């Protein structure tokens, strides 16, 4: 029961959709996924070539760091699968996952400042909206045996 609670808390609060697709064996490679993501976000947010050239290296750097934290969280969660796990160990797992979530949020905040140095806050807002749409379309596409986001 405790394992289930830890898993539910983790899944609801930590996994970003982009990270969920990063390691999955989907039809798209990581590079293909990122290329589609970049194209979609650039178009939806109205980024110029210059803005995109400055923004996406930072964006993908952030995604890589968040993926590393996500992998560390999954590693912690796997430790709880052992039937011999003690209450103290579960406590350490839950705390560790929470710490990774906080670290991920702190990364978001620190990269927001970096993003502001290369693009406007309005563009950052448009990118956040586009990113959400992209992941929604990717999920929709997966359910319909497709893999490319639709454009509205």
Structure report:
By secondary structure, the chain is mainly α. The protein has one domain (2-143). Helices cover 79% and strands 0% of the residues. The protein is built from six helices and no strands. The chain has helices at 2-13, 17-22, 30-45, 49-79, 87-118, 121-143. The longest helix is centred in the C-terminal third of the chain and has 32 residues, at 87-118. 17% of the residues are buried. The model is unreliable at 9-25 (pLDDT under 50).
How would the global form be characterised?
Answer: globular
Whole-number radius of gyration?
17 Å
Helix content: over 70%
Write down the oligomeric state.
single chain
Element pattern in H and E: HHHHHH
Largest sheet: none
Mean pLDDT: 83
Unreliably modeled segments: 9-25
Whole-number count of domains:
1
Our estimate of the beta-strand percent is under 5%
Class inferred from helices and paired strands:
mainly alpha
Q: How far apart lie the N and C ends?
A: 43 Å
Number of helices: 6
What is the tally of beta strands? 0
């Amino acid at each position: 029961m405790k394992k289930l609670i830890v898993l539910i808390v983790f899944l609801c609060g930590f996994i970003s959709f982009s990270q969920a697709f990063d390691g999955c064996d989907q039809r798209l490679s990581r590079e293909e996924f990122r290329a589609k993501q970049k194209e979609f976000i650039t178009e939806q947010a109205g980024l110029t070539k210059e803005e995109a050239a400055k923004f996406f290296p930072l964006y993908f750097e952030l995604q890589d760091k968040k993926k590393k934290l996500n992998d560390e969280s999954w590693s912690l969660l796997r430790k709880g699968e052992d039937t011999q796990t003690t209450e103290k160990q579960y406590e350490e797992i839950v705390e560790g996952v929470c710490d990774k979530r906080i670290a991920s949020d702190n990364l978001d905040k620190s990269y927001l400042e970096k993003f502001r140095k290369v693009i406007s806050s309005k563009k950052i807002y448009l990118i956040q909206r586009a990113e959400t749409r992209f992941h929604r379309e990717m999920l929709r596409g997966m359910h319909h045996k497709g893999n490319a986001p639709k454009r509205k």
